[in-house]
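User: I'm new to structure prediction. If I give you an amino acid sequence, what do you actually give back? Let's try with this one:
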Amino acid sequence: MAAIERAARLSVRGLVHRFGDRTVLDGLDFDVRRGEVFGLLGPNGSGKSTTFGVLTGMLVPAACELRLDGAPIAPGDRRLRSRLGIVFQAPSLDPRMTARENLRLGAALYGVRGPTARDRIEALLDLVELRDRGDEPVRRLSGGMRRRLELVRALVHGPQILVLDEPTTGLDETSFRRAWARIIDLRDREGLTVLVTTHRHEEAEQCDRIAILDGGRAVADGTPAELKQRVSGDVLLLEGDAPEELAREITERFAVGARVVDGQVVVERERGHELVPRIVEAFPPGRLRSVAMRRPTLADAFLKLTGRTLGGLDRARGKA
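Assistant: Good question. You get back a string of structure tokens that encode the predicted 3D arrangement of the chain. For your 320 residues, that looks like this:
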């Protein structure tokens, strides 16, 4: 595993961006340390992709103080772009070209040519186990293979920072795990710093540290374990008819906070296993369809910190 340094490779302060009268980013601050995988976690519409657009020079912010290795630099500056490897959420490979041709095009765009480009391309194809498929059109490759090719195309020029916008969108569970194994391996082999935007709590779990975005700001940051500790004890999930009424009854009977999230009653409780049988015994047969208990996830931490779910921007109902 690559060593993570305390020094910030990339620092963002006071990032503001507006689309007309709508403020999407409202003074966003965060640091990405050298050698770490850092994630920006939030639902769609929380400003993650806007941040991605500013850092990659596609959007001009209303305000932003940006530092690269401690030195001030303007968003979109060519010196910054040359040190970034960028993987977009939407597919950006040419499906008619072969895997090698896509990598050659990527290298040429950064001025990497000749034997240097050829050696780099072959090494990267080996790294993601695609050398034997290198002369096939991309349209014949699986979704997982295409995503691996997108990753290494972003590395042909030897960047220091890999920026990924929702990198596993559309991948199944197996491809998701393989993609993240590749990202961590690339970080370690290439000595990269990695910045990820995601709305998936499972993806944020793969990061060394994350910042939770809400209202255009970072409302909390830390390791996944530190943020999950914001949720007390276990999480109980109950299903039954009239969930609002069920949440109210549980709150009154057991003096615990119960809220309705996506049709389920959610209760946080230390030693949750002791509360489960008491709840089951308190209601007549058929009142509860299911009762489950699990340890907190980053989705629970997000809800605790913001009152919102990662599935959308609607306010969770009930008591905190």
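You can read the tokens as a compact description of the fold. Here is one thing that stands out. Confidence is low (pLDDT under 50) at residues 312-320.
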